[in-house]
């Protein structure tokens, strides 16, 4: 079962989220402190500017809500007022939330690509701290694959939604690779600097022009590039490929007549003008010139709005993909319910055959040499496997199809018929989910360093859990959630189930 | 051998059709075409089958491919496809496949309906072969340059009018302009050779008809247009939209020349 406890841009105002942002050291410490509690078996922390979340796996000896309460307490430890903004997602909802976050469907800007890297960073940090085990490893791998599938099969990440990134995208559409291209920044406005900075990150060479040497020097100190005074504008216009204008001038800084003169020296090279000022710095008629592309702040904002709308439309398709991932996770876990019983059955059968084989080897077959004895043992094992292959495969497949109660009945019957009660163990952590081997190149980590939760002494817990739903953090565990049944099926379900 | 020619033609047609569809879908929808480059792979398969068809059909009919308009038409398409596949390895020019694939398919199929013709005995066969080869190579290359120019005008218009849908998937303006220019540079010597040898043939024919005259004039016009585009770019910096229009005009002239050749048997013309 996956539990997510967190605070995000959807629930908390930014001034509170800012206080909650965790450094790497604090996040690492939080992971350690979480798993030091008996309620929490595995955990990792996600901390971005828009969310802080704990993704945890409850230990087998407590109910899930106890784990959620621990996570909430530690998350809000430093800021008590955050508790009212905290959400809890359990079981299937927890897995759904994890996949949605990874696919950037829960992001402030839907489709933004950074969240997956941020999630991976949080997961890797937890893994290095030894707080990630098999379940979280598998869940996270599935979430990452689901997120990549969303990006691959939908257009949720296409188009840009911020003005600076749109400007850079448009420049790329005109010039291709921006490395080595020259960009001129007129003025020192915030938006202009943000755009110029983005160009510089793409490898463009920056020239900053202004009327005040001090201001220009301050901007070049921040962004890099070379400085020039505004009287050099005609020369600069003939040389650069992109002009970003963001001055506070009340009149046009670039006039049509002036630009025409500069265009002659350009020999037909395209020129991209970005006018971010209000009132506009660049005479609008310039956009009609051959080889000149003029975009003002309204144009860029319009593109941003259209991109955001397109992403929202794609989000519906992405949501359907997320549901497929969640269903796959749930069914894989359902299939896991059968594993302890199947293993116990195999063990019982082998044991029975080996007892008889030992009798025979002491009796009529005592003349067999070592090689023959080994062959005999191998034959018995192979026979057991062959005998049980078809029924066990069918049980797993039925469980994976969501067989639920029917599968439970079969497993209970097998347990009774073959007296498997003493053989079923809760420590069945060496089985993989069917078909869940990480694919090449996507594997986040090697085998998890942190072992599965240790089996503790005491009565086995939890017969039944309610259907997954978002639960308030103040919910007290109800009577149904407190366990008394110790049957193998119930224990296995308690161990793995969220449904 | 005949069977091989027929099979390779059929499979080549299918491959070109699939490639056309994949290129179109790749331009309009992101997630349908599978891994990137799949359309180009299919097109490459189609080109191999096309080449196989050309060779086997030529062997079967015992005609040199460069001595017959029937094969030359098909050969032109193959040249265009091969040059496109080479260009896309260094430049992100996949969207041009939307033009290249259907044109290749059309030429491959249309060539089947163009009957073989015989060259007048006055013309040197060797020189005629060289003329046709150079013409078809030049035409194939200039056709691709025309495709790049067409895309340039489309993207430029969309950027100017600030209608950005679909533009993000197309190559950048500078890339399209550069590819078009370099293809013209590559095709110009071939066209020059074709025009010179064409002029020699025209002079050798004592009673060349109106069709021959039209072809010659159109050939000169094409050469002049391409030369003009290259010269004006070098001297005055005419690039981008102006270069694209000039290139497209040259392609239009070439297309008319090709139509004259194709329709020549119907018009009862001679070489």
Overview of the structural elements:
- The complex is a heterodimer of chains A (499) and B (271).
- Chain A is an alpha/beta fold.
- Chain A contains 16 helices and 10 strands.
- In chain A, the strands form 2 sheets. Chain A has a 6-stranded parallel beta sheet with strand order 7-6-5-8-9-10, sandwiched between helices. Chain A has a 4-stranded antiparallel beta sheet with strand order 2-3-1-4.
- In chain A, helix 7 (163-175) packs across helix 8 and helix 12 crosses helix 14.
- The model of chain A is unreliable at 426-499 (pLDDT under 50).
- Chain B is 77% helix and 0% strand.
- Chain B has helices at residues 2-28, 38-61, 69-90, 97-110, 125-161, 173-204, 210-236, 241-267.
- The model of chain B has no long low-confidence stretch (mean pLDDT 83).
- Chain A binds chain B through residues 152-155, 158-159, 169-170, 172-176, 266-270, 287, 290-291, 293, 295, 299, 302-303, 306, and chain B through 30-31, 155, 159-160, 162, 164, 167-168, 170-175, 233, 236-242.
The coarse overall form of chain A would be: elongated
Average pLDDT figure of chain B? 83
Helix content class of chain B: over 70%
Oligomer: heterodimer
Give the neighbour order of strands across the main sheet of chain A.
7-6-5-8-9-10
Structural class of the secondary elements of chain B? Answer: mainly alpha
Judged by helices, strands and strand pairing, the structural class of chain A is alpha/beta
Largest sheet of chain A: 6 strands, parallel
Tell me the β content of chain A: 5-15%
**Count of helix runs of chain B:** 8
Helices and strands in order:
The complex is a heterodimer of chains A (499) and B (271).
Chain A: E1 3-8, H1 14-20, H2 24-35, E2 40-47, E3 51-58, H3 64-75, E4 87-90, H4 92-102, H5 114-129, H6 134-153, H7 163-175, E5 182-186, H8 190-201, E6 205-210, H9 213-223, E7 226-229, H10 233-239, E8 242-245, H11 256-266, E9 271-275, E10 292-296, H12 297-336, H13 339-362, H14 370-400, H15 405-417, H16 488-496
Parallel strand pairs in A: 5-6, 5-8, 6-7, 8-9, 9-10
Antiparallel strand pairs in A: 1-3, 1-4, 2-3
Chain B: H1 2-28, H2 38-61, H3 69-90, H4 97-110, H5 125-161, H6 173-204, H7 210-236, H8 241-267
Helix pairs in contact in B: 1-2, 1-4, 2-3, 3-4, 3-5, 5-6, 5-8, 6-7, 7-8
């Amino acid at each position: 079962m996956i539990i997510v406890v967190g605070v995000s841009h959807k629930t908390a105002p930014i001034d509170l989220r800012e206080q909650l942002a965790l450094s790497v050291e604090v996040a690492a410490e939080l992971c350690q402190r979480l798993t030091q509690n008996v309620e929490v078996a595995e955990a990792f922390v996600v901390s971005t500017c828009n969310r802080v979340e704990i993704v945890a796996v409850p230990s087998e000896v407590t109910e899930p809500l106890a784990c959620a309460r621990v996570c909430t307490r530690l998350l809000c430890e430093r800021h008590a007022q955050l508790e009212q903004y905290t959400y809890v997602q359990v079981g299937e909802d927890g897995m759904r939330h994890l996949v949605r976050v990874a696919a950037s469907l829960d992001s402030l800007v839907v489709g933004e690509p950074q969240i997956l890297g941020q999630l991976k960073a949080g997961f890797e940090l937890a893994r290095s701290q030894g707080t990630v085990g098999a379940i979280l490893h598998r869940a996270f791998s599935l979430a990452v694959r689901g997120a990549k599938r969303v990006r691959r099969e939908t257009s949720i990440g296409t188009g840009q939604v911020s003005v600076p990134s749109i400007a850079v995208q448009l420049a790329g559409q005109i010039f291709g690779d921006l490395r080595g291209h020259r960009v001129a920044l007129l003025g020192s406005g915030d938006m202009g600097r943000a755009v110029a900075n983005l160009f510089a990150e793409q490898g463009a060479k920056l020239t900053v022009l202004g009327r005040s040497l001090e201001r220009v020097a301050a901007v070049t100190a921040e962004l890099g590039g070379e400085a020039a005074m505004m009287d050099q504008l005609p020369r600069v216009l003939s040389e650069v490929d992109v002009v970003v204008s963001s001055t506070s001038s009340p009149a046009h800084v670039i006039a049509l007549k002036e630009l025409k003169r500069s265009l002659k020296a350009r020999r037909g090279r395209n020129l991209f003008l970005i006018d971010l000022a209000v009132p506009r710095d660049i005479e609008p008629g310039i956009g009609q010139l051959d080889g000149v592309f003029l975009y003002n702040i309204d144009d860029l904002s319009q593109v941003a709005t259209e991109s955001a709308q397109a992403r929202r439309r794609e989000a519906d398709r992405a949501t359907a993909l997320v549901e497929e991932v969640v269903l796959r996770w749930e069914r894989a876990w359902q299939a896991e319910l059968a594993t302890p019983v199947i293993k116990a059955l195999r063990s019982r059968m082998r044991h029975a055959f080996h007892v008889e084989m030992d009798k025979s080897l002491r009796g009529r077959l005592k003349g067999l040499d070592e090689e023959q004895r080994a062959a005999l043992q191998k034959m018995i094992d192979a026979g057991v496997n062959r005998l049980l292959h078809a029924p066990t495969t069918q049980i797993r497949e039925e469980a994976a199809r969501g067989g639920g109660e029917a599968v439970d009945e079969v497993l209970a019957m097998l347990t009774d018929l073959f007296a498997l009660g003493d053989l079923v163990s809760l420590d069945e952590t060496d089985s993989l989910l069917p078909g869940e081997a990480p694919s090449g190149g996507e594997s986040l980590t090697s085998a998890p360093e942190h072992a599965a939760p240790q089996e503790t002494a005491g009565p086995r817990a939890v017969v039944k859990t309610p259907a997954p739903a978002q639960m308030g953090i103040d919910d007290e565990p109800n009577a149904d959630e407190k366990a008394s049944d110790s049957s193998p099926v119930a224990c296995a379900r308690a161990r793995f189930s969220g449904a | 051998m005949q069977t091989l020619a027929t099979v390779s033609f059929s499979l080549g047609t299918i491959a070109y059709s699939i490639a056309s569809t994949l290129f179109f879908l790749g331009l309009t929808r992101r997630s349908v075409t599978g891994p990137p480059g799949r359309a180009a792979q299919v097109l490459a398969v189609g080109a191999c089958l096309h080449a196989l068809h050309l060779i086997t059909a030529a062997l079967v009919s015992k005609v040199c491919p460069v001595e017959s308009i029937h094969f030359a038409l098909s050969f032109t398409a193959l040249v265009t496809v091969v040059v496109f596949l080479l260009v896309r390895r260094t430049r992100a020019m996949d969207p041009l496949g939307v033009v290249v694939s259907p044109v290749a398919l059309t030429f491959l199929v249309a060539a089947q309906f163009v009957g073989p013709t015989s060259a007048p005995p006055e013309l040197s066969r060797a020189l005629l072969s060289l003329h046709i080869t150079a013409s078809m190579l030049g035409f194939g290359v200039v056709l691709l340059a025309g495709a790049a120019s067409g895309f340039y005008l489309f993207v430029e218009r969309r950027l100017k009018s600030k209608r950005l849908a679909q533009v993000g998937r197309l190559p950048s303006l500078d890339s399209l302009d550069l590819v078009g220019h370099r293809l013209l540079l590559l095709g110009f010597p071939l066209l020059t050779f074709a025009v010179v040898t064409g002029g020699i043939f025209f002079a050798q024919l004592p009673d060349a008809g109106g069709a021959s005259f039209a072809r010659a004039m159109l050939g000169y016009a094409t050469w002049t247009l391409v030369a003009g585009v290259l010269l004006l770019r070098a001297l005055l910096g005419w690039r981008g939209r102006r270069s694209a229009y000039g290139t497209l005009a040259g392609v239009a002239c070439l297309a008319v020349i090709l139509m004259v050749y194709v329709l020549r048997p119907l018009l009862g013309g001679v070489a």
